[in-house]
Every structure is written in C-alpha cells, then in structure tokens.
Amino acid sequence: MDYKITTEEIWGRISRGRKVKRLTVSKDDLSVSVINLGATVQQILYRGKDMILSFPTPELYEKFSIGCIGATVGRYAGRIAAGQFSIDGVDYQLTKNQNGNHLHGGQSGFQTKLWESCVIDDRIQFTLFSPDGEEGYPGNLNVRVTYRITEDNGLEIAFQAESDRDTVINLTNHCYFNPNGLDASFNKLTNPMNHDNRDVMLTVNADHVMELDGEIPTGQLLAVEGTRFDFRTPRILACDTDDLHGNYDHTFVLNPHGPEQPVAIAKGLKSGVRIEFLTDQPGVQLFTMGNPGTVFALEAQHFPDSPNHPEFPSTILRAGDVFSSRTVYRFSHE
Fold first, then answer.
1. Is there a catalytic annotation at residue 208?
2. Whether 302 is catalytic
3. Model-wide pTM > 0.85
4. What are the pLDDT digits (tens) for 296-315?
5. What are phi and psi of 249, to 5 degrees?
6. What are the extents of the domains in the chain?
7. DSSP assignment letter at 64
8. Can you tell me whether residue 116 is helix, strand or coil?
C-alpha cells in the first residue's frame, strides 16, 4: 500500500483540558492533516505548498469556530430562515444564531465538537453522535466523515449520516483555498499577502445562481449570463468585486454532471497549481474572504433554506435511511 499515515499525535488542548488529535496521511505529492476538533482539514500540502487557510494551534480553532475554517459543517450547512421548518406538518424551531436565522448548525455546530477518530486502512474516519433536540433538530443522529487520498492527488471526503427520526441534514466541508499557496498563519488575513484572488482563475459549471432576499433564497434562480457570476468560462475570481464589497457569498446551482466531472476548477496564475472540485451535490456556495479576496471556499452542498422550499432538492433524511455524499479536491500542476 502506497499510503502512509505519517503522524497520529496529540496536537494540543482546548478548554476544559480536552485533547485535540491530529492525523496526517501522505501520498505522492499530497499530504493532508486532519484534526478531531470539528473533523477539520487542518492542512493540505501539495508539492510542499500550503493550499488552505489554517490555524497553527487548536486553541485558535476553538476561539474562531464561528468561521468553520476547514471544518465539517452541520447539521445543516447554510441558512434556514428564522430557524424554522416543518416535516409532515410538524413544526420545529432551531437556534437563531445569525441575524435572526439559523446558520451552519447553530451555536454549537459540528465544527465545535470533538469527534471520535480512527484509521481504517488508507482512510481517516471521524464519527459523531448528535442527540435528539440538539440545537432544535429532531432525531438522534450518527454522522461519519471519511478522508482519503486518491490515486490522482485528490482529497476525497465522504459523508454519511443516519437518524432515528425524520430530520433535515446538509453537510459540507468549509476549507478556504488559494492555489497560489498560503502562509499557514491566521494573521495573513490582516497582513499583506503575496497572493490574492486577483491571481486565481475560476471556472464553475453553473448557468444559475440563487436569488437572495437579504441572505435568504427567494426560491427564484437567476441566469449568470452577462453578470459577475458567470464563471462558465475561466475568469479571474476577484474581478468586479467592488460591487460586492470584495466578497461573494452566493449559491451556484450546478448544471447536471457526472460524479467524476469537475464542477469547478481554480487555477493559481502564479503557482500553476490547478484544483478541480468534484461532488455529487446539487450546488456550491462560493464564499470569498478578504478584499480583493485572500481565500475562497467552494462548499459543495444542498441549497440554503431548502426545508422551506419544496421546489428545491429535498434535504429531509427519513428515519432509518442513510444520507451519503462525496466531494473531492483534486490537485495538479500545469
């Protein structure tokens, strides 16, 4: 077996003396470190270059957990309007933690939890139990996130979940990328950087984005043609961001695609590194941070506020059924 688990260590401690474990798996040009706090991707090194934003200590991951940096997001990634939804006529009220809405699982989302971890052959697996009523969600939920490096320099992330009651679920990973490379230090967000999103060429296979009323989808889809959201052909990510105050935070509705067909491609113009994003999910949330954008996230997921939009693909997980999804970040060099 070519895979090698290079480290499995106690990386540090967070509040109440809790230990945070870090595991690293490497193959060929790719090395990935993950931690059990938030089932978080803490580092991706491609040819020795940092590809994602990261913190140098577990204490910072705990302190800035609201940013979900590199973390597994759940139970529901994205916003649910007023934290309310119903299933089969039964109403549920979730925690309101962002402008009167429910965001990324609430006050104590999955990014704040210490997950159980184990190594199975070439995979690193995290598991979490979320009890019935946590943050207002129905059902005892068991979640599994599995990381492995593929044969073609890809990081594969597989999600699975089961509940004993009907519930809603929308899981994603929240890595922040820059294919030109990043100093693995959080203060690079406030200090000048060598690279930003003006040096990133992005392609997204999406003809439409979600129309928003404030931060919540209206249910209508907007054609990207002729707009700042048209990434169907490669375009500099940071262009025209003045009208967006330097940032994107929008849901792209992916065109029909196969499981091995990239839904988005980001290329670093200075590094020549190319990142292909593959997923079986119907949408990606493009989120940029910094002005003109130091890093970006492409969160593969279902749509925000889907429980209140029957016209959207359903995010209901029925009792006894298994939720599963797969996302791959594949790296190459041109």
1. no
2. no
3. yes
4. 999 999 999 999 999 999 99
5. -155, 70
6. 4-333
7. T
8. strand
